[in-house]
UniProtKB/TrEMBL annotation:
This is N-acetyltransferase domain-containing protein. Keywords: Transferase. InterPro entries: Acyl_CoA_acyltransferase (IPR016181), GNAT_dom (IPR000182), NAT_camello-type (IPR050769). The keyword Nucleus does not apply. PROSITE patterns: GNAT (PS51186). Gene3D superfamilies: 3.40.630.30. Coiled coil: none annotated. Residues 27-165 form the N-acetyltransferase domain. It comes from the Bacteria. It comes from Luteimonas vadosa. SUPFAM superfamilies: Acyl-CoA N-acyltransferases (Nat). Transmembrane segments: none annotated.
């Protein structure tokens, strides 16, 4: 599955490739997200719904799911753009396997997802997270996301664990 051509959005491209959603990758979307959610929180009903039906809940309504593959390790990360309105997209379900952390796979994946959101005309592009995810929040800030009370008010009730809402501003 690995392609020798590096992902064009990756700050460190050596050994990383980006893939679009395919049904045969759905198990990776599920398993990678269950791994990080269970490590820090508990799965909520909305998590289960999306993770068990990614085509119906994300792809078919106009969203996207991307994967990052690390040479020698296979698929190590995933992230979704879930369409939540005519032009609004939530960056959601971003996770990287513990075994691949430190390889810049998350940064590569985030850059690719932002680029994909731009191509879709996402406005707003936002995310919902928890303050316990400090490293992820730092990464989001580094790539142009800013804390946004309006996003929290409009979308934050979706998850019980949500106490941080951010909007992409670049």
């Amino acid at each position: 599955m690995f392609h020798t051509r590096p992902a064009p959005w990756c700050p460190v491209t050596h050994g990383l490739a980006i893939h679009e959603f395919r049904d045969d990758l759905a198990a990776h979307f599920h398993d990678i997200n269950v791994e990080w959610i269970n490590a820090m929180f508990r799965l909520e009903d909305t998590d289960r719904d999306v993770l068990e039906q990614p085509r119906a809940r994300i792809i078919d309504p106009g969203g996207r799911i991307l994967f990052v593959e690390a040479e020698g390790l296979g698929i190590v990360g995933t992230c979704a753009l879930q369409k939540t309105g005519p032009t609004s997209y939530e960056l959601t379900k971003m996770g990287v396997r513990e075994t691949a952390r430190g390889r810049k796979a998350g940064e590569c994946l985030l850059a690719a997802v932002i680029e994909r959101a731009r191509s879709l005309g996402a406005d707003p592009l936002y995310l919902l997270t928890n303050s316990k995810c400090a490293a992820a929040i730092h990464l989001y800030e580094k790539h142009g996301f800013r804390h946004d009370a309006g996003i929290m008010a409009q979308y934050g009730a979706r998850y019980e664990r949500c106490d941080v809402a951010m909007r992409y501003v670049r």
